[in-house]
């Protein structure tokens, strides 16, 4: 390739999700100069050839860059070759920091798909000051975790006629199995990241205490997590607590709104839905069991080796079949409560607004679209983002940009709508 700087590089392009991102980039990044990167040049070229045949598009001119997380110089070289790196190479706890460090030092922006809280907190603590000085924006969780949740809260607040005190998010995944030979919803890479997060849960809590040291106002009424299975109006599902990934990300964004722009933070809780009361009761026990197994080396090896067994086939090393992946659906119902005038905290909220975020192929199609659109928005609207750079969660980073509107126009099917106002 020539010495001209690229707009974007998709790193980890040969992975399961990386290949989907490359295919979607043909349309979403059509007005930009972009390339792909990974450790194996032959496999990278094979990816381009395969996608070229699938889409009937000539991708022979897409630059191929060899970069390996085991070779720091190659990562530094890649970071200097573009304006933004789209990092699809996980687990990020193991492989993420070297890419973030190279990007921040080069003044290059960075987005990734991470849903690993300890990695995210560590990057914010370690590279915030350097990113601000170099003009680099580093944004994690630019995927199904946590763009729909973050933007859902912003969308609910945008459509609330007053002050929002709290938002409760009710998540439902609706698998559709057109190919009945497989019930997989996710590739095992997601499972591996979850196990690493559970393994280092103590470190995550320690990092979050250091990160969230700013004192917040005492909010009333307090939003407490419902620890029991319950139902909500407009849904036939039973919901169980699901305080994983999205919740700390949304809470971090809300904390930053208070600390940096003196805006009242919104309290947040998240729940996941099941068809039966039994599953909703058992689910927290399942999470606790997996978390305990992740603490011990021998049982942790079993978790990594047999994701199909422990998840009853929903996570496998091969991942979902394409036909099943594209018809799977998700629904987020967000219930925002607050006051129509002022913030009379001595009184109960007098207004509730319900919004919905929904779409198909959430774990891969929407994930790919979110990552690409976040990168595109940074390239086009970085002047609307906080400060001159920094390491931020997506809700705070993109609050003043057109990301919400841009995603609504994409073919991914991610849709936001008001159900009750």
TrEMBL record:
Transmembrane domains' residue ranges: 272-294
Coiled coil region boundaries: none
UniProt entry keywords in alphabetical sequence: Membrane, Transmembrane, Transmembrane helix
Hydrolase is among the record's keywords: no
InterPro entries reported in the protein's UniProt record: NAD(P)-bd_dom_sf (IPR036291), Saccharopine_DH-like_oxidrdct (IPR051276), Sacchrp_dh_NADP-bd (IPR005097)
Residue intervals of the Saccharopine dehydrogenase NADP binding domain: 9-139
Domain of life of the organism encoding this protein: Eukaryota
Family, per entry: Belongs to the saccharopine dehydrogenase family.
The name this protein goes by in its record: Saccharopine dehydrogenase-like oxidoreductase
Species of origin: Musca domestica
Gene that this polypeptide is encoded by: LOC101891141
């Amino acid at each position: 390739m020539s010495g001209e700087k690229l707009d974007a590089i998709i790193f980890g392009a040969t992975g399961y999700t990386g290949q989907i991102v490359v295919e979607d980039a043909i349309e979403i990044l059509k007005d930009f100069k972009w390339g792909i990167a990974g450790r194996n040049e032959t496999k990278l070229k094979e990816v381009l050839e395969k996608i070229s045949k699938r889409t009937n598009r000539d991708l022979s001119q897409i630059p191929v860059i060899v970069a390996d997380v085991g070779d720091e110089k190659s990562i530094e070289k890649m970071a200097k070759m573009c304006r933004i790196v789209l990092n699809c190479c996980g687990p990020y706890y193991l492989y993420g920091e070297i890419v973030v460090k190279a990007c921040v030092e080069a003044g290059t922006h960075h987005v990734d798909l991470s849903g690993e809280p300890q990695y995210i907190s560590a990057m914010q603590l370690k590279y915030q000051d350097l990113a601000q000085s170099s003009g680099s924006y580093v944004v994690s969780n630019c995927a199904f975790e946590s763009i729909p949740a973050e933007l859902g809260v912003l969308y609910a607040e945008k459509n609330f006629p007053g002050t929002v005190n709290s938002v409760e998010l009710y998540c439902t995944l609706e698998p559709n199995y057109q190919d009945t030979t497989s019930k997989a919803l996710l590739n095992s890479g997601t499972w591996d990241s979850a196990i690493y997060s559970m393994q280092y849960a103590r470190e995550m809590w320690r990092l979050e205490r250091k990160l969230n040291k700013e004192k917040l106002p005492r909010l009333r009424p307090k939003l407490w997590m419902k620890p029991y299975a319950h139902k909500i109006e407009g849904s036939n599902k039973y919901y169980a607590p699901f305080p994983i990934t999205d919740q700390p990300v949304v809470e971090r964004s809300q904390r930053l709104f208070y600390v940096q722009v003196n805006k009242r933070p919104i309290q947040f809780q998240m729940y996941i839905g099941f068809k039966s009361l039994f599953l909703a009761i058992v689910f927290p026990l399942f999470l606790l069991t997996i978390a305990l197994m992740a603490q011990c080396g021998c049982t942790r090896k079993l978790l990594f080796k047999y994701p199909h067994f422990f998840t009853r086939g929903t996570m496998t090393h091969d991942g979902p079949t394409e036909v099943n992946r594209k018809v799977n659906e998700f629904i987020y119902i967000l219930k925002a409560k607050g006051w129509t005038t002022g913030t009379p905290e001595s009184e109960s909220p007098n207004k509730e607004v319900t919004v919905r975020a929904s779409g198909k192929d959430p774990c891969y199609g929407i994930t790919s679209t979110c990552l690409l659109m976040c990168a595109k928005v940074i390239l086009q609207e970085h002047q609307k983002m906080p400060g001159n750079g920094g390491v931020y969660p997506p809700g705070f980073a993109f609050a003043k940009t057109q990301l919400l509107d841009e995603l609504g126009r994409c073919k991914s099917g991610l849709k936001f709508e008001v159900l009750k106002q």
